[in-house]
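Check the record.
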Amino acid sequence: MKHIAILGSTGSIGTQTLNVIRRHRDLFEVEVLVAGSNASLLVEQALEFNPNMVVIADKSKYPIVRDALHNTDVKVFAGVESACDAVQIDSVDLVVAAIVGFAGLKPTISAIRAGKVIALANKETMVVAGSIVTAMARQHNVPILPVDSEHSAIFQVLQGEMHNRIDRILLTASGGSLRGKRREQLLNVTLDEVLKHPNWSMGRKVTIDSASLMNKGLEVIEAKWLFNVDADRITVLVHPQSLVHSMVQFEDGSIKAQIGTPTMETPIQYALSYPHRIESHLPRFSFFEHPELTFEHPDTETFRCLPLAYDAIKRGGNIPCVMNAANEVAVQRFIDGRLRFVDIADYVEQAMAKAPFMPNPSLDDLLQCDEEVRRNG
């Protein structure tokens, strides 16, 4: 029995993690649930899974959760610091880091310091502080198990290949909801249009990042740190069917791929059950139903966030942190109707250009850098 803490339990990854646990109650038990501000769903989850404790990060929602769980044994806390404390309790074996954006960094680091196994769905943790996080994981002997479908695919492909050199990582991208469109066609694109992803069901932030190709840029940086491969050996392929989740080419030229239906529950389940594979109810992939798998170059002229991410990791230091913070601000402005979709890349590029460069930032430096970018934005 593994005892699980879920950071971001009410989000897309968090709710799908609970779907996996619901089907395998004999293997997994929910110990801690952490949500941002969705008090009603957090209460519903707590009543079903009866965790040791829950944390609502939005302190203003604490009375709602506390009162709703008053007649249960579930302990209720509020605030980010409580989330950091909750993942450190002795009874937690594995922490699913599924808080979207920079907000997931501090609780994830707290879990690493406590020696917990990390199932990482928060790519921004690696984007902002990859060097620090990987060094800390080595220091505390903490496995980081990827949950992103692409990184899970690479991780699965590399099983049994620890003695063989990676020549190239082939990172697949769906192309998002706007694939094939040129800039002039995107001048007045609406939020609803951007959110209509053809293959995946994800939260708004990730879906918008998918459309801009920033999500793939973040994944390039994450892959560099997870698999110790320079970014210039990570190639992005647009694969509209979203069935080949990523590939690795080895130095003899051989390519191994992980293929499956486009659902996040498969990589989530693999991370929870690793190193074992367990039964899944999900539909099986069939080559007869999908006789054509296509691949194409990403359009980096129209969707400039991807080359911006390559530039950020090439420059290093605090620049990936700047890029991530500026993107989070820009995406929120687009959601709020205060910025056009086509202006997201310009906003990020300008922030990267004017930010003071720090070659070897500490964690405190990165926290301050993120705050300054958001404040100046």
Observations:
- The first strand starts at residue 2 and ends at 7.
- Residues 151-315 form one domain.
- DSSP finds 15 helices and eleven strands in the chain.
- The first helix runs from residue 12 to 23.
